[in-house]
Design goal:
CATH topology of the largest domain: Rossmann fold
Strand content: 15-25%
Helix content: 25-40%
CATH class of the largest domain: Alpha Beta
Shape: elongated
Strand order of the largest sheet: 1-13-12-9-14-17-18-19-20
Number of domains: 2
Number of helices: 14
Radius of gyration: 25 Å
Structural class: alpha/beta
Number of strands: 20
Largest sheet: 9 strands, mixed
CATH superfamily of the largest domain: CoaB-like
Distance between the termini: 44 Å
Length: 430
C-alpha cells in the first residue's frame, strides 16, 4: 500500500519568482507591527527588476519611518494627500495613473473598513479609488480583530469590488495571541505579486482548462533503505506548471518525493514515489475530473525491482558483486494517451544521443500530440540546470513544422511550450 501526499506549501524562495522588468508597483503601507516585513518585500521586488514606489498612512509611519522606505525604494515616500510639491498638489492622481499594480500590505482593519465603504480621507484610500490598476491587499491584524464579523463583512465587500485578497497566515502574534492574522512572509508576497503580473501580461489561452503535469524523478525501492532513481530535479516540470497557470489553467502537479522545489502558489501538488504510484495517482485524477491536457515531464524509471527485498540487503564478504533482477515499469504517458484519447498528450524526451530521432519515434509509438526533447548530456541544459534548449515535434495530423527552442531560462522555454500547446488546442477545437 502507498499514499500520495497533497500539498500547497508556502515555503518559497527567489528561484520560484519570475523577473519583473519595468513593472511599476505601488506599495501602500498601513499601521501595524507587520510593517517591518514590507522593507524586505520592497528589496525583493527591486532586486527582481521592478520599479517600486511607496505610500504610507500616518499610522504606518509610527511603526517604520518613511526614510527607511525611501532608502530602500530610492524614491520619495508619499504620505500626504494634498502635497503641494507633488504635481501641483494632485500627486494622488499621478500615483494612481503610474502604477501597473497596487499592493496594500499590511492592510489594517481600519483601512480595510475605509476601502470597503469608499472612504477617501488619506492618500492611500484616495489612490485606491482613483486607480484603474489591479489592487492586491494583504490584511494583517490581531486574530480577534480578523475574526470579527464586521471585518469579515468588509472583506467580503472588497472581494465583490474586485480586490485581490491574500489571506493572513496563522500562528503566534506579537501580542502573544495565536491564530489567523499574521502577514505572510515577504517571499510569499513577492511570488504572489509576480504571479499577478505574469497573468496580466499573458494571453489566457488555457482558461477553463485542467492540466496534469508530472515532474521530477521516480524512486524504485531495492530494499527498505535503498532505491533506484535518476538526476532529474523537476525544474522543467515546475516551470511548465507555472507557465500553464499564468495562461489561466487549473494545474495539478504530480511529482516525485525527492523534488526539492517549493510549490507554486495556487497549484495543487501530489507527491509520489515509484512509477506505479505516479500512474495510480494520475489515474485517480482522471477518474475524478475531466483533464484537458496531460504533460509528462517526469523522468520515470524504466525499470523496477522484480521483488523488493523486505530487509536490508547485506554485503557478503566472499561475493564480489550483486545482481539485481529488474522488470519494466508501466509506461505512464503511453497508458494515459491510449486510455484518454480526448486529452491532449505531451511528452518529454531527455536523451544523451540521437535525441531527435528518439523523440520522433516516441511521438508516434505513444500516440502523442506533441513531444519536446533535449540533450541532457549538455551540462548547460541538463538535469538540475536553470536553462534549457529543446526541439519540439508535433503529430502529423497537425501539419506543423518542428520548432527549435534556443537556450533560455526554463521559465522562458516553458512559456514557448505553452504557446505550442495552445495552438494545438485551438486546432482541435475548430
Amino acid at each position: 500500500m502507498w499514499n500520495y501526499i497533497m500539498t500547497t506549501d508556502n515555503h518559497h524562495d527567489l528561484s520560484t519568482i519570475q523577473p519583473l522588468p519595468k513593472a511599476k508597483i505601488l506599495i501602500g503601507i498601513t499601521g501595524g507591527i507587520a510593517c517591518y516585513k514590507i522593507a524586505f518585500l520592497v528589496r525583493l521586488l527591486i532586486k527582481n527588476g521592478a520599479d517600486v514606489r511607496v505610500m504610507m498612512t500616518k499610522a504606518a509611519c509610527e511603526f517604520i519611518t518613511p526614510l527607511t522606505m525611501q532608502a530602500l525604494s530610492t524614491h520619495q515616500v508619499h504620505t500626504e494627500l494634498l502635497d503641494e510639491s507633488a504635481e501641483l498638489g494632485m500627486g494622488h492622481i499621478e500615483l494612481a495613473k503610474w502604477a501597473d499594480l497596487v499592493v496594500i500590505a499590511p492592510l489594517s482593519a481600519n483601512t480595510l473598513a475605509k476601502l470597503a465603504n469608499g472612504i477617501a480621507d488619506n492618500l492611500l484610500t484616495t489612490v485606491c479609488l482613483v486607480t484603474t490598476a489591479p489592487i492586491i491587499v494583504a490584511p494583517a491584524m490581531n486574530q480577534a480583530m480578523w475574526a470579527n464579523s464586521i471585518t469579515q463583512y468588509n472583506l467580503k465587500k472588497l472581494i465583490e469590488f474586485g480586490f485581490d485578497v491574500i489571506n493572513p497566515d496563522s500562528g503566534e502574534q506579537a501580542c502573544g495571541d495565536v491564530g489567523a492574522g499574521r502577514l505572510p512572509e515577504p517571499e510569499y508576497l513577492c511570488e504572489y505579486i509576480e504571479q499577478k503580473l505574469a497573468k496580466k501580461s499573458t494571453s489566457q489561452t488555457l482558461t477553463g482548462k485542467t492540466v496534469v503535469i508530472t515532474a521530477g524523478a521516480t524512486l524504485e525501492p531495492i530494499d527498505p533503505i535503498r532505491f533506484l532513481s535518476n538526476y532529474s530535479s523537476g525544474k522543467m516540470g515546475f516551470a511548465v506548471a507555472k507557465a500553464c497557470q499564468n495562461a489561466g489553467a487549473n494545474v495539478i502537479l504530480v511529482c516525485g518525493k525527492k523534488v526539492n522545489l517549493p510549490t507554486p502558489i495556487g497549484i495543487q501538488r501530489m507527491i509520489v514515489g515509484s512509477a506505479d504510484e505516479m500512474l495510480s495517482c494520475c489515474q485517480k485524477i482522471f477518474d475524478a475530473q475531466k483533464v484537458d491536457i496531460f504533460i509528462a515531464s517526469a523522468a520515470v524509471a524504466d525499470y523496477k525491482m522484480a521483488t523488493i527485498a523486505p530487509h536490508k540487503l547485506k554485503k557478503t564478504q566472499d561475493v564480489a558483486g550483486l545482481t539485481l533482477e529488474l522488470v519494466k515499469n508501466p509506461d505512464i504517458l503511453a497508458h494515459i494517451a491510449q486510455t484518454h484519447p480526448k486529452t491532449l498528450a505531451v511528452g518529454f524526451a531527455a536523451e544523451t544521443q540521437d535525441t531527435q530521432n528518439y523523440a520522433k519515434a516516441k511521438l508516434i509509438a505513444k500516440n502523442l500530440d506533441m513531444i519536446a526533447c533535449n540533450d541532457v548530456s549538455d551540462k548547460q541544459i541538463g538535469f538540475g540546470s536553470d536553462d534549457n534548449a529543446m526541439s519540439v515535434f508535433f503529430a502529423e495530423k497537425y501539419h506543423k513544422e518542428a520548432k527549435n527552442l534556443t537556450k533560455a531560462p526554463k521559465l522562458e522555454i516553458a512559456k514557448q511550450l505553452v504557446t505550442c500547446i495552445s495552438e494545438l488546442l485551438a486546432i482541435n477545437e475548430q
